[in-house]
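Same chain as my last thread, 76 residues:
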Amino acid sequence: MDFKKIMKIVSVIAAVLALVAAAYFAFKKLTAKEEPEYFDDNDFFECDNDLEIVEVKEEAEEATEAADDEEAADAE
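reply #2:
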């Protein structure tokens, strides 16, 4: 076998491998991707997801009233 015939065989094998690789990547790209599975820790911990809304103004007023009462008690 001469050099030209060997190079033709190698080039045919390389072309076939390139076609297989292109078909593989096209198949992977066109098929549906799986959705990621997220970890749910509610299975392990009892958790109440209800949020309690607290008005900050009310707490501040109560704190100032308590401070005023303490100052009045200290003054007497």
